[in-house]
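pasting for ref
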Amino acid sequence: MNIELEKRQIIEEIKTVHDEWVVKAIKRLLGLYDDDDIPEEHKQILDSRIDAYEAGKTETISFEEARKKLLGK
């Protein structure tokens, strides 16, 4: 595998992308996003959910329980 060749191919493909969501996803994957990309309303929702969790006011389940529910087991 030639990593430099693969990087060049990816860069060339990115140059042709016109979908805003694809560009945002690439930025996130590369760690290039900033807090300005997250709407204030979403930040407030997350903050309130974190506060509720830390105060013990939310019902949580383990990963395995969630997985079983999602898989219908």
